[in-house]
Amino acid sequence: MNDIKAQFFSIGRLDNCRLDFIRHSNFWEGPTATVVPTANAHMWGVIWRMHTNNISALNEQEGVERKIYYPAYVNVLTPYLGSFNCLIYIQKVNPLPIGYNDEIPIERWPSWTYKEVIILGALEHQLPEYYIQMLEKIKNNGGKGCFKMYCLLLRYAKEKPCRCIIQKKIEKPRQLDLRKLRQQKENI
After folding, report:
1. pLDDT, tens only, 64-88
2. Mean pLDDT across the stretch 3-12?
3. 3-state class of 147 per DSSP?
4. Where does substrate bind (predicted)?
5. How many C-beta neighbours within 10 Å does residue 91 have?
6. Helices (DSSP H) in the chain: which residue ranges?
7. Which of 43, 66, 93, 108 is the most buried (most CB within 10 A)?
8. Distance CA 51, CA 101 (A)
9. pLDDT (tens digit per residue) in 136-149
């Protein structure tokens, strides 16, 4: 979150919803996450506490004015503190329904970097182990969008930030070829 006044509050579980990916982002080289209503499913996440004066900045960050996401209030259950009414952002374009355990279609696979950032956040905030394993099983499209940012996140999650320039060569991101992926899937 860009708002430095936001504070970690708790982890929480959102029932009757699942994590899915739909709208392609050039920055991430793949679709970004959204919440999709799904019966008998649930997803875990992090609850942040922030002042209500900062809602407009958060709306801008999430693309509400650009009609990418819309805000919604949902009831989230925390492990130790009970239920809370929380603000979440859902993409305007939602994917077609699939079963909770059904495989995500190829065109909705997130990039490798986006998936790794989600998993790093889940590990950092100690989401349940079974949920982290579910996140790790999500297939990715191999895209290395914003790979340099991912390397910096990994580095500074373990060490204090420095002002030095990273000399490591960053490989060029791969291009996503949906036809090739579909053909490979059909041949299997």
Report:
1. 888 888 999 999 999 989 999 999 9
2. 80
3. helix
4. 114
5. 22
6. 55-62, 112-124, 129-137, 147-158, 178-187
7. 43
8. 37
9. 999 988 888 776 66
108 secondary structure, DSSP code: G
Q: Are 16 and 38 in contact (CB under 8 A)?
A: yes
The set of catalytic residues is: 62
Q: Hey, what are 165's tokens? A: 């320039």
Report how far apart, in Å, the C-alpha atoms of 62 and of each of 32, 40, 55, 68 are.
Answer: 11, 27, 10, 7
Segment 146-175, tens digit of pLDDT: 766 667 777 776 666 666 666 666 666 667
Cα angle 115, 117, 120 (rounded to 5 degrees) comes to 110
Residue ranges for the known binding site are: 114
CB atoms within 10 A of CB 71: 13
**Residue 133 confidence class, pLDDT cut points 50, 70, 90:** very high
SS3 20: strand
CA distance 52 to 7: 13
User: Binding site membership for substrate: which residues?
Assistant: 114
Q: Would you call 68 exposed, middle or buried from its count of C-beta atoms within 10 A (0-12, 13-18, 19+)?
A: middle
Q: Which of 37, 27, 173, 33 is nearest to 108 (CA)?
A: 33
